[in-house]
Amino acid sequence: xxxxxxxxxxxxxxxxxxxxxxxxxxxxxxxxxxxxxxxxxxxxxxxxxxxxxxxxxxxxxxxxxxxxxxxxxxxxxxxxxxxxxxxxxxxxxxxxxxxxxxxxxxxxxxxxxxxxxxxxxxxxxxxxxxxxxxxxxxxxxxxxxxxxxxxxxxxxxxxxxxxxxxxxxxxxxxxxxxxxxxxxxxxxxxxxxxxxxxxxxxxxxxxxxxxxxxxxxxxxxxxxxxxxxxxxxxxxxxxxxxxxxxxxxxxxxxxxxxxxxxxxxxxxxxxxxxxxxxxxxxxxxxxxxxxxxxxxxxxxxxxxxxxxxxxxxxxxxxxxxxxxxxxxxxxxxxxxxxxxxxxxxxxxxxxxxxxxxxxxxxxxxxxxxxxxxxxxxxxxxxxxxxxxxxxxxxxxxxxxxxxxxxxxxxxxxxxx
Length: 416
Prior knowledge:
The chain is an all-alpha fold. It is built from 21 helices and no strands.
Protein backbone atom coordinates (compact mmCIF):
# COMPACT_ATOMS: atom_id res chain seq x y z
CA UNK A 1 0.00 0.00 0.00
CA UNK A 2 2.75 2.44 0.96
CA UNK A 3 4.73 1.63 -2.18
CA UNK A 4 1.66 1.94 -4.39
CA UNK A 5 0.65 5.31 -2.96
CA UNK A 6 4.07 6.67 -2.06
CA UNK A 7 3.76 9.62 -4.41
CA UNK A 8 0.29 10.50 -3.12
CA UNK A 9 1.56 10.36 0.46
CA UNK A 10 4.58 12.41 -0.58
CA UNK A 11 2.33 15.08 -2.08
CA UNK A 12 0.31 15.28 1.13
CA UNK A 13 3.46 15.45 3.25
CA UNK A 14 4.98 18.26 1.17
CA UNK A 15 1.70 20.17 1.35
CA UNK A 16 1.47 19.87 5.14
CA UNK A 17 5.12 20.85 5.65
CA UNK A 18 4.87 23.91 3.42
CA UNK A 19 1.58 25.06 4.91
CA UNK A 20 2.87 24.66 8.45
CA UNK A 21 6.03 26.56 7.57
CA UNK A 22 3.99 29.47 6.23
CA UNK A 23 1.75 29.27 9.27
CA UNK A 24 4.74 29.53 11.63
CA UNK A 25 6.29 32.58 10.00
CA UNK A 26 3.04 34.42 9.21
CA UNK A 27 0.90 33.33 12.20
CA UNK A 28 -1.95 32.39 9.86
CA UNK A 29 -3.92 30.46 12.48
CA UNK A 30 -3.74 33.39 14.91
CA UNK A 31 -5.49 35.89 12.64
CA UNK A 32 -9.03 37.00 13.52
CA UNK A 33 -10.00 39.21 10.57
CA UNK A 34 -13.19 38.03 8.85
CA UNK A 35 -13.69 39.48 5.36
CA UNK A 36 -17.17 40.58 4.19
CA UNK A 37 -17.31 37.70 1.69
CA UNK A 38 -16.51 35.24 4.49
CA UNK A 39 -19.35 36.67 6.57
CA UNK A 40 -21.63 36.28 3.57
CA UNK A 41 -20.83 32.59 3.25
CA UNK A 42 -21.40 32.10 6.98
CA UNK A 43 -24.74 33.91 6.68
CA UNK A 44 -25.75 31.69 3.74
CA UNK A 45 -25.10 28.57 5.83
CA UNK A 46 -27.13 30.01 8.71
CA UNK A 47 -30.03 30.77 6.37
CA UNK A 48 -30.00 27.24 4.96
CA UNK A 49 -29.67 25.29 8.21
CA UNK A 50 -31.66 27.49 10.61
CA UNK A 51 -34.21 29.30 8.44
CA UNK A 52 -34.41 26.84 5.51
CA UNK A 53 -34.08 29.70 3.04
CA UNK A 54 -31.62 30.68 0.34
CA UNK A 55 -29.09 33.50 0.33
CA UNK A 56 -29.36 36.41 -2.08
CA UNK A 57 -25.67 36.26 -3.13
CA UNK A 58 -24.32 32.82 -2.16
CA UNK A 59 -25.84 29.71 -3.82
CA UNK A 60 -27.03 26.59 -2.06
CA UNK A 61 -24.18 24.12 -2.60
CA UNK A 62 -21.57 26.35 -0.97
CA UNK A 63 -24.04 27.05 1.84
CA UNK A 64 -24.62 23.32 2.29
CA UNK A 65 -20.90 22.48 2.44
CA UNK A 66 -20.16 25.37 4.78
CA UNK A 67 -22.94 24.59 7.23
CA UNK A 68 -22.51 20.83 7.68
CA UNK A 69 -21.17 21.25 11.28
CA UNK A 70 -24.49 22.88 12.23
CA UNK A 71 -26.04 19.41 11.91
CA UNK A 72 -23.92 18.40 14.90
CA UNK A 73 -24.64 21.44 17.06
CA UNK A 74 -21.61 23.47 16.01
CA UNK A 75 -21.14 27.13 16.85
CA UNK A 76 -20.20 29.75 14.26
CA UNK A 77 -16.58 29.37 15.37
CA UNK A 78 -16.80 25.69 14.44
CA UNK A 79 -17.84 26.67 10.92
CA UNK A 80 -14.54 28.48 10.39
CA UNK A 81 -12.60 25.47 11.70
CA UNK A 82 -14.58 23.23 9.35
CA UNK A 83 -13.89 25.62 6.48
CA UNK A 84 -10.16 25.15 7.05
CA UNK A 85 -10.56 21.35 6.91
CA UNK A 86 -12.59 21.52 3.68
CA UNK A 87 -10.15 23.96 2.08
CA UNK A 88 -7.19 21.83 3.10
CA UNK A 89 -8.78 18.69 1.68
CA UNK A 90 -9.52 20.43 -1.63
CA UNK A 91 -6.07 22.05 -1.76
CA UNK A 92 -4.28 18.72 -1.26
CA UNK A 93 -6.78 16.88 -3.45
CA UNK A 94 -6.17 19.26 -6.34
CA UNK A 95 -2.47 18.37 -6.42
CA UNK A 96 -3.19 14.63 -6.18
CA UNK A 97 -5.54 14.86 -9.17
CA UNK A 98 -2.94 16.87 -11.12
CA UNK A 99 -0.51 14.03 -10.41
CA UNK A 100 -3.05 11.47 -11.65
CA UNK A 101 -3.50 13.37 -14.92
CA UNK A 102 0.17 14.08 -15.60
CA UNK A 103 1.35 10.52 -14.93
CA UNK A 104 -0.59 9.49 -18.06
CA UNK A 105 1.97 11.27 -20.24
CA UNK A 106 5.01 11.58 -17.96
CA UNK A 107 7.08 9.57 -15.52
CA UNK A 108 5.68 9.42 -12.02
CA UNK A 109 8.66 11.31 -10.58
CA UNK A 110 8.08 14.12 -13.06
CA UNK A 111 4.34 14.08 -12.36
CA UNK A 112 5.11 14.33 -8.65
CA UNK A 113 7.34 17.39 -9.17
CA UNK A 114 4.62 19.20 -11.11
CA UNK A 115 1.91 18.12 -8.65
CA UNK A 116 3.64 19.82 -5.72
CA UNK A 117 4.19 23.09 -7.59
CA UNK A 118 0.73 24.47 -6.65
CA UNK A 119 1.79 24.27 -2.99
CA UNK A 120 4.38 26.94 -3.73
CA UNK A 121 1.69 29.33 -4.99
CA UNK A 122 1.47 31.10 -1.65
CA UNK A 123 -1.82 32.82 -2.40
CA UNK A 124 -3.61 29.47 -2.61
CA UNK A 125 -1.98 28.41 0.68
CA UNK A 126 -3.20 31.54 2.46
CA UNK A 127 -6.79 31.03 1.27
CA UNK A 128 -6.97 27.78 3.25
CA UNK A 129 -7.46 29.96 6.32
CA UNK A 130 -10.46 31.88 4.95
CA UNK A 131 -14.09 30.92 4.43
CA UNK A 132 -14.03 31.43 0.65
CA UNK A 133 -14.88 29.39 -2.44
CA UNK A 134 -11.62 29.41 -4.40
CA UNK A 135 -10.00 26.15 -3.25
CA UNK A 136 -13.31 24.27 -3.31
CA UNK A 137 -14.10 25.57 -6.79
CA UNK A 138 -10.63 24.61 -8.07
CA UNK A 139 -11.08 21.08 -6.69
CA UNK A 140 -14.46 20.69 -8.41
CA UNK A 141 -12.97 21.94 -11.68
CA UNK A 142 -9.81 19.78 -11.63
CA UNK A 143 -11.86 16.71 -10.73
CA UNK A 144 -14.22 17.50 -13.61
CA UNK A 145 -11.27 17.76 -16.01
CA UNK A 146 -9.79 14.51 -14.68
CA UNK A 147 -13.09 12.76 -15.40
CA UNK A 148 -13.18 14.39 -18.84
CA UNK A 149 -9.64 13.11 -19.42
CA UNK A 150 -10.85 9.61 -18.51
CA UNK A 151 -13.77 9.98 -20.91
CA UNK A 152 -11.49 10.81 -23.82
CA UNK A 153 -9.19 7.97 -22.78
CA UNK A 154 -11.83 5.24 -22.38
CA UNK A 155 -14.89 6.50 -24.26
CA UNK A 156 -17.12 5.61 -21.29
CA UNK A 157 -20.07 7.97 -21.05
CA UNK A 158 -20.38 7.87 -17.25
CA UNK A 159 -17.07 9.75 -16.98
CA UNK A 160 -18.54 12.52 -19.14
CA UNK A 161 -21.76 12.56 -17.14
CA UNK A 162 -19.86 12.93 -13.86
CA UNK A 163 -17.61 15.62 -15.35
CA UNK A 164 -20.51 17.71 -16.63
CA UNK A 165 -22.36 17.24 -13.34
CA UNK A 166 -19.43 18.70 -11.42
CA UNK A 167 -19.12 21.63 -13.81
CA UNK A 168 -22.84 22.39 -13.51
CA UNK A 169 -22.71 22.01 -9.73
CA UNK A 170 -19.75 24.41 -9.58
CA UNK A 171 -22.04 27.32 -10.48
CA UNK A 172 -23.76 26.66 -7.13
CA UNK A 173 -20.40 27.31 -5.48
CA UNK A 174 -19.15 30.15 -7.67
CA UNK A 175 -21.98 31.70 -9.74
CA UNK A 176 -19.53 33.17 -12.26
CA UNK A 177 -18.86 29.63 -13.52
CA UNK A 178 -22.33 29.31 -15.02
CA UNK A 179 -21.50 30.47 -18.53
CA UNK A 180 -18.50 28.15 -18.72
CA UNK A 181 -20.57 25.19 -17.54
CA UNK A 182 -23.38 25.96 -20.00
CA UNK A 183 -20.95 26.24 -22.93
CA UNK A 184 -19.31 22.90 -22.11
CA UNK A 185 -22.68 21.16 -21.72
CA UNK A 186 -23.81 22.55 -25.09
CA UNK A 187 -20.59 21.30 -26.66
CA UNK A 188 -21.43 17.75 -25.55
CA UNK A 189 -25.18 18.00 -26.14
CA UNK A 190 -25.12 15.36 -28.93
CA UNK A 191 -23.47 12.85 -26.59
CA UNK A 192 -25.99 13.71 -23.89
CA UNK A 193 -28.94 13.17 -26.24
CA UNK A 194 -27.50 9.84 -27.41
CA UNK A 195 -27.22 8.61 -23.84
CA UNK A 196 -30.14 10.34 -22.12
CA UNK A 197 -31.59 6.97 -21.03
CA UNK A 198 -28.34 5.76 -19.47
CA UNK A 199 -28.31 5.21 -15.70
CA UNK A 200 -25.26 7.45 -15.42
CA UNK A 201 -27.44 10.38 -16.55
CA UNK A 202 -29.06 10.36 -13.11
CA UNK A 203 -26.10 12.33 -11.73
CA UNK A 204 -26.39 14.92 -14.50
CA UNK A 205 -30.13 15.18 -13.94
CA UNK A 206 -29.44 15.62 -10.24
CA UNK A 207 -27.19 18.63 -10.96
CA UNK A 208 -29.83 20.16 -13.20
CA UNK A 209 -32.41 19.58 -10.47
CA UNK A 210 -30.25 21.41 -7.91
CA UNK A 211 -29.87 24.35 -10.29
CA UNK A 212 -33.63 24.39 -10.86
CA UNK A 213 -34.28 24.39 -7.12
CA UNK A 214 -31.81 27.27 -6.69
CA UNK A 215 -33.36 29.36 -9.48
CA UNK A 216 -36.99 28.68 -8.54
CA UNK A 217 -36.19 29.27 -4.87
CA UNK A 218 -34.64 32.66 -5.69
CA UNK A 219 -37.78 33.58 -7.63
CA UNK A 220 -40.04 32.57 -4.76
CA UNK A 221 -37.96 34.28 -2.09
CA UNK A 222 -36.57 37.38 -3.80
CA UNK A 223 -38.49 37.84 -7.06
CA UNK A 224 -36.18 36.79 -9.94
CA UNK A 225 -35.21 33.57 -11.69
CA UNK A 226 -31.47 33.73 -11.07
CA UNK A 227 -28.62 31.74 -9.54
CA UNK A 228 -27.51 34.76 -7.52
CA UNK A 229 -27.77 38.54 -7.41
CA UNK A 230 -24.00 38.88 -7.03
CA UNK A 231 -23.36 39.35 -10.78
CA UNK A 232 -25.16 42.68 -11.09
CA UNK A 233 -23.72 43.97 -7.83
CA UNK A 234 -20.20 43.08 -8.96
CA UNK A 235 -20.17 44.72 -12.38
CA UNK A 236 -22.11 47.75 -11.11
CA UNK A 237 -19.87 48.39 -8.09
CA UNK A 238 -16.56 47.73 -9.81
CA UNK A 239 -16.16 48.02 -13.58
CA UNK A 240 -19.12 50.38 -14.10
CA UNK A 241 -18.20 52.50 -11.10
CA UNK A 242 -14.59 52.72 -12.28
CA UNK A 243 -15.77 53.69 -15.78
CA UNK A 244 -17.93 56.41 -14.24
CA UNK A 245 -14.91 57.70 -12.30
CA UNK A 246 -12.83 57.80 -15.49
CA UNK A 247 -15.60 59.79 -17.16
CA UNK A 248 -15.70 62.35 -14.34
CA UNK A 249 -11.94 62.54 -13.83
CA UNK A 250 -12.04 60.95 -10.38
CA UNK A 251 -9.97 58.21 -8.77
CA UNK A 252 -11.88 54.99 -8.15
CA UNK A 253 -12.03 54.04 -4.45
CA UNK A 254 -14.12 51.02 -3.57
CA UNK A 255 -14.21 51.89 0.15
CA UNK A 256 -15.78 55.26 -0.67
CA UNK A 257 -18.06 54.20 -3.52
CA UNK A 258 -21.31 56.17 -3.34
CA UNK A 259 -22.75 54.14 -6.23
CA UNK A 260 -22.25 50.93 -4.21
CA UNK A 261 -23.87 52.48 -1.14
CA UNK A 262 -26.88 53.47 -3.25
CA UNK A 263 -27.21 49.99 -4.78
CA UNK A 264 -27.03 48.22 -1.42
CA UNK A 265 -29.88 50.42 -0.24
CA UNK A 266 -32.24 48.83 -2.78
CA UNK A 267 -34.03 45.50 -2.59
CA UNK A 268 -32.46 42.67 -4.58
CA UNK A 269 -34.78 42.83 -7.59
CA UNK A 270 -34.10 46.56 -7.92
CA UNK A 271 -30.36 45.94 -7.51
CA UNK A 272 -30.45 43.61 -10.50
CA UNK A 273 -32.55 46.02 -12.57
CA UNK A 274 -30.57 49.17 -11.71
CA UNK A 275 -27.24 47.42 -12.37
CA UNK A 276 -28.39 46.20 -15.79
CA UNK A 277 -29.84 49.57 -16.79
CA UNK A 278 -26.60 51.27 -15.73
CA UNK A 279 -24.48 48.81 -17.72
CA UNK A 280 -26.65 49.28 -20.80
CA UNK A 281 -26.44 53.05 -20.48
CA UNK A 282 -22.66 53.01 -20.07
CA UNK A 283 -22.23 50.79 -23.12
CA UNK A 284 -24.20 53.37 -25.13
CA UNK A 285 -22.75 56.58 -23.67
CA UNK A 286 -19.48 55.74 -21.92
CA UNK A 287 -18.15 52.78 -23.88
CA UNK A 288 -14.54 53.92 -24.17
CA UNK A 289 -14.20 54.38 -20.42
CA UNK A 290 -15.94 51.06 -19.81
CA UNK A 291 -13.34 49.35 -22.00
CA UNK A 292 -10.59 51.28 -20.22
CA UNK A 293 -11.97 50.19 -16.84
CA UNK A 294 -12.16 46.57 -18.00
CA UNK A 295 -8.52 46.41 -19.08
CA UNK A 296 -7.50 48.32 -15.96
CA UNK A 297 -9.17 45.61 -13.87
CA UNK A 298 -7.53 42.77 -15.80
CA UNK A 299 -4.12 44.45 -15.48
CA UNK A 300 -4.60 45.00 -11.74
CA UNK A 301 -5.76 41.42 -11.19
CA UNK A 302 -2.71 40.17 -13.11
CA UNK A 303 0.01 42.01 -11.19
CA UNK A 304 -1.10 42.53 -7.58
CA UNK A 305 -0.10 40.40 -4.62
CA UNK A 306 -2.26 38.51 -2.17
CA UNK A 307 -4.52 40.94 -0.30
CA UNK A 308 -4.89 38.60 2.69
CA UNK A 309 -1.15 38.85 3.38
CA UNK A 310 -1.31 42.64 3.54
CA UNK A 311 -3.88 42.36 6.33
CA UNK A 312 -1.86 39.97 8.51
CA UNK A 313 -1.11 41.21 12.03
CA UNK A 314 1.89 40.29 14.17
CA UNK A 315 -0.17 38.75 16.97
CA UNK A 316 2.83 37.16 18.71
CA UNK A 317 5.16 40.17 18.31
CA UNK A 318 7.84 38.14 16.54
CA UNK A 319 10.85 40.10 15.28
CA UNK A 320 10.95 38.24 11.97
CA UNK A 321 7.23 38.65 11.14
CA UNK A 322 7.36 41.83 9.04
CA UNK A 323 10.36 40.57 7.08
CA UNK A 324 8.60 37.35 6.03
CA UNK A 325 5.31 39.15 5.46
CA UNK A 326 7.02 41.48 2.97
CA UNK A 327 8.91 38.65 1.28
CA UNK A 328 5.88 36.41 0.86
CA UNK A 329 3.72 39.29 -0.38
CA UNK A 330 6.32 40.27 -2.98
CA UNK A 331 6.60 36.64 -4.07
CA UNK A 332 2.81 36.47 -4.60
CA UNK A 333 3.00 39.56 -6.83
CA UNK A 334 5.54 37.94 -9.11
CA UNK A 335 3.82 34.58 -9.00
CA UNK A 336 0.64 36.28 -10.15
CA UNK A 337 2.41 38.03 -13.03
CA UNK A 338 4.46 35.07 -14.21
CA UNK A 339 1.85 32.32 -13.88
CA UNK A 340 -0.88 34.49 -15.41
CA UNK A 341 1.32 35.07 -18.48
CA UNK A 342 2.18 31.37 -18.67
CA UNK A 343 -1.50 30.48 -18.41
CA UNK A 344 -2.57 32.90 -21.14
CA UNK A 345 0.21 31.95 -23.57
CA UNK A 346 -0.19 28.20 -23.13
CA UNK A 347 -3.98 28.41 -23.29
CA UNK A 348 -3.84 30.22 -26.63
CA UNK A 349 -1.23 27.71 -27.85
CA UNK A 350 -3.34 24.66 -26.96
CA UNK A 351 -6.56 26.19 -28.29
CA UNK A 352 -4.93 26.84 -31.66
CA UNK A 353 -3.35 23.39 -31.65
CA UNK A 354 -6.41 21.36 -30.63
CA UNK A 355 -9.52 23.26 -31.70
CA UNK A 356 -10.10 20.97 -34.72
CA UNK A 357 -9.92 17.89 -32.52
CA UNK A 358 -10.70 19.01 -28.95
CA UNK A 359 -9.39 17.12 -25.94
CA UNK A 360 -9.20 17.74 -22.21
CA UNK A 361 -6.46 20.35 -22.59
CA UNK A 362 -8.65 22.31 -25.00
CA UNK A 363 -11.20 22.77 -22.25
CA UNK A 364 -8.58 23.46 -19.59
CA UNK A 365 -7.22 26.21 -21.84
CA UNK A 366 -10.68 27.64 -22.39
CA UNK A 367 -11.30 27.55 -18.63
CA UNK A 368 -8.13 29.57 -17.89
CA UNK A 369 -8.98 32.23 -20.48
CA UNK A 370 -12.61 32.31 -19.31
CA UNK A 371 -11.58 33.05 -15.71
CA UNK A 372 -9.06 35.73 -16.71
CA UNK A 373 -11.50 37.42 -19.12
CA UNK A 374 -14.26 37.30 -16.49
CA UNK A 375 -11.97 38.83 -13.86
CA UNK A 376 -12.15 42.14 -15.71
CA UNK A 377 -15.55 42.96 -14.23
CA UNK A 378 -14.04 43.36 -10.75
CA UNK A 379 -10.89 44.52 -8.98
CA UNK A 380 -9.37 45.32 -5.61
CA UNK A 381 -9.00 41.69 -4.56
CA UNK A 382 -5.28 41.21 -5.20
CA UNK A 383 -4.40 37.92 -6.88
CA UNK A 384 -7.63 36.21 -5.76
CA UNK A 385 -9.28 36.10 -9.19
CA UNK A 386 -6.34 34.58 -11.05
CA UNK A 387 -5.29 32.15 -8.30
CA UNK A 388 -8.05 29.86 -9.54
CA UNK A 389 -6.21 29.39 -12.84
CA UNK A 390 -2.73 28.67 -11.49
CA UNK A 391 -3.01 24.88 -10.92
CA UNK A 392 -4.39 24.55 -14.45
CA UNK A 393 -1.56 26.65 -15.89
CA UNK A 394 0.89 24.24 -14.22
CA UNK A 395 -0.98 21.31 -15.80
CA UNK A 396 -0.70 22.92 -19.25
CA UNK A 397 2.99 23.63 -18.65
CA UNK A 398 3.61 19.94 -17.92
CA UNK A 399 1.75 18.91 -21.08
CA UNK A 400 3.59 21.48 -23.19
CA UNK A 401 7.04 20.44 -21.96
CA UNK A 402 6.19 16.76 -22.44
CA UNK A 403 5.60 17.48 -26.13
CA UNK A 404 8.73 19.61 -26.57
CA UNK A 405 11.64 17.72 -28.14
CA UNK A 406 14.22 19.12 -25.74
CA UNK A 407 12.30 17.91 -22.66
CA UNK A 408 10.50 14.88 -24.08
CA UNK A 409 13.14 12.36 -22.86
CA UNK A 410 12.57 13.49 -19.27
CA UNK A 411 8.82 12.99 -19.53
CA UNK A 412 8.44 9.74 -21.43
CA UNK A 413 7.14 7.05 -19.06
CA UNK A 414 9.60 4.26 -18.33
CA UNK A 415 8.97 1.03 -20.21
CA UNK A 416 7.50 -1.68 -18.00
